[in-house]
Amino acid sequence: MDKNHQQLPLAKCARQRCSEWVFRDVPSDITIEVDGGTFSLHKFPLVSRSGRIRKLVAEHRESDISRMELLSLPGGAESFELAAKFCYGVNFEITAANVAQLCCISDYLEMTEEYSKNNLGSRAEEYLESVVCKNLEMCVEVLQQCENLLPLADELKIVTQCIDSIASKACVEQIASSFSRLEYSSSGRLHMSKTTKSEGDWWIEDLSVLRIDLYQRVITAMKCRGVRPESIGASLVTYAQKELIKKSSLWNQSTQPKVDLGSDTSGHERLVVETIVSLLPVEKFAVPISFLFGMLRSAVMLDCAVSCRLDLERRIGSQLDIATLDDLLIPSFRHAGDTLFDVDTVHRILVNFSQQDDSDEDMEDGSLFETDSPPSPSQTALFKVSKLVDNYLAEIAPDANLKLNKFIAVAESLPAHARTLHDGLYRAIDVYLKAHQGLSDPDRRKLCKLIDFQKLSQEAGAHAAQNERLPLQSIVQVLYYEQMRLRSALFCSYPDDDPKPMHQSWRINSGALSAAMSPRDNYASLRRENRDLKLELARLRMRLNDLEKEHVCMKRNMERSSSRKFMSSFSKKISKLNIFGHSSSRGSSSPSRQSQRTDSKLTERT
User: Fold this and answer.
1) Distance CA 26, CA 452 (A)
2) Per-residue pLDDT, 219
3) pTM of the complete model
4) Could you tell me which residues come within 8 angstroms of residue 235 by beta carbon, excluding any fewer than 6 positions away?
5) Which residues form a coiled coil (predicted)?
């Protein structure tokens, strides 16, 4: 800055609508109008520093210009006031809050080294490179200032410098934090200690103040630099909570139950949701599944792009096994005649899960042959999701607006082998039948075809056998499979008996009568047979218990007797027995019973 300019006395006059800087006792000779203010100044200090003002004054040298308009000035009156202070030699501090404005105003006014040494442009750029770009918080602050200076700030590479600096600093901080977490275990091996939150992720809160377009560019740069997906996900969660929950009135249903999709607020929130979804890391579990469901609810509520919603549904489907019932209960935001919950969205999520599960099974050829091995992760996930779906069906079943085809579509979205037990599905269907009592008989039969009655537990089967809401054909199936279960239990309890007569009686009673009798008579007959089978099974169990007690007592008596007496009595008795004498007689008992009698006689002798 020239010494003459530094020594010029300045006086700040009172301002009504604008800022005025004048030489003391020297009247101003030019008035400059900018956006938001009017300045009465002097040509000489402005011309000596600003190439733009110098050119404008030179163009009107003959008319002695006294008024000048600077339209579309970056930063408005505040920025021009700082530039005018610099031209007059007034000292002020360059900070992160004004360096972006100074860079833009110096470019607009052409305050470069060509017109004056150590001009405003070079000083602002030097501060930006040597001070701001070495500090992450200052870079974020400068980016905030650039929000009102676009696109000029982008053209001057201010935004790019700050974004690159933020990404580099975050990556370096993360690497340093990883090294600080390294420690030696008791065995002398080097490992990384587990912490709930990495110390290198302190920048997450700082980035949440940025506007969505600049935030998107920062996260993209961080991905390119190799920042961990977990850190990217944590930053996205924090930013979404700030923009969609703390600032939004859509989440406060008590104050605004209806969403105006045409308002500016909804448009901004729609942009935020779509941008955050596009920034989600491709890795699984980078963000909590509850966050994905929250974003999906927002996308449905705000009517976001179809690609955005499908992406969220695909991500949720890939990790559906860790979801909860509350996650699946997505409210429906359509017309009044629709269901309470968004069933179509859940159905698409289940289809994505099933398709992913099928692809995983195709790749795991070994699991098709090793049936005795523990279930693979995909099989475990399938079992978990089947229970989740059954609970979801039971939750939405009471909805009077829920159509039968939607209920069946959700129930059939999983493969048949997903459910090892059909108790949950039976409960959901029973709730649906109870809530929709006007359902026709063909629809009830169609609904009950979803249940495999062989996979019902004993308690569920007993309930289904007495459930009047089920079609008669379904009750007959329940009783039939219950009868089969009882007969198999009888055969297992008494394997020595010949099962042929029982099998023949079953064929006569259950087969011939089923064909000749009406369904209602067949139903009563099956119930009587099941009741008789239960009594027979109880008697057999009591007999088995008695035999076990006799066997235990006999074993104890044999252990109490001395070995000499036992051997002598045994030799005397064995000499009198003729083992093969009555083996072929028609009236003799079975070998097992004969041995039992022999053992009992031996016990009595001893």
Assistant:
1) 100
2) 96
3) 0.71
4) 201, 204, 207, 208, 219
5) 523-564
